[in-house]
Amino acid sequence: MAVIQLPAHVLKIGFPVPFALRDASGHLLVPRGTMVSTESQRQQLIARGIYVDENDSEQFKKALAGKLDSMVRSNALLGQIARATADVPEAPAATAAAARKSVGDPVNAWNNLMLRSSALLHEPPQADFGSRVEKLERDVVELLDADPDAGLLTLIHATTSELHQYSVTHALLVTSVCELAARNLPWSAEWLQSMRRAALTMNIAMTTLQDMLALQDGPVTPRQREVIDGHAGKAARMLRELGVGDDLWLQAVEHHHASPPGPLAQLSPWMQLARLIQRADIFAARLSPRKMRQAMPAIAAAKAAYLDENQKADEAGAAIIKGVGIYPPGSYVRLASTEVAIVLRRGLRANEPKVASIISRSGTPLGEPAMRDIRQKAYEITGGVAPHEVKVRLNLQRLLQL
To answer: Taking the model in full, what pTM does it have?
Structure first.
């Protein structure tokens, strides 16, 4: 039986599955119409890997892998990759709104996480370091489960607009990107836990230096280069001294700059985690400005994550694009109308996000952001816009209300 793997977000708690779900061998996991009633059930299915018989629905007959490779290598717009991504029904608006309400103000919630992360990563406590990382990790997952788009919007906006506290924002963004990407991979709950903790702490040996480099006017000094080159191994040693005994976590940190390209299944478990962290690290870094360089548009960051060292399609990079989209929330796009818009939420397809115009055709800021339907020809996305080109102060709470 030919099967096609589904993205993890096809499973909605409280809703019947639209198709019979199978494992990679085609064996039935749950019949069509089965209700996924708890997050635990959902995670167990995701860990097994969820697939559908390709004959069950026209929706899932579009193959992703081949199209991603040919389209990117031919320099096609990454937005076209959406044609290779299966459409998945979204939860009803009322359900999504209830999830968002459960965490109150997501912008403030993420800002509070940034403050906690800063204290933890700049001055890691010897006594309860492990429990504090565990609590931080759980809170990240809770916020992403409640409203992943609000999380991406807040973190990417902070990454692209604020040079201070770069290290903390970067750690949370990489962790969130890894989490959303890994939901498209057949990884166990234990792997996901180790992955998140590794992503949060991968740069713990150079946290202060990261903040300095973001603000530094000149090039990296030889001493700084020495710290950068040795930070992965030193981070693993520091984590051991802080009481971390999870070898998967430690090895992923130690190898997050040394994981080779190629199929993930051919790598060791910690190398698989390290590979995803590495590609997410590249993606987030390309979105981040420095004193010495400008940030890239999101579409360029996506391409950098997707193509490996040999300019071939990277499996971990493809998972990132599937997880966060080509135009993730918080990034900027130009419309056919010549307006500049900010992406608010991911859409059913990777190139159909929900956007709001913030700069008019004449180049002046709009008094109020205006929602645009990019499926209309007049408002099609024509490309990405780098953050430094957007000189508008944004109210994230107001944007999320749209």
So the answer is: 0.77
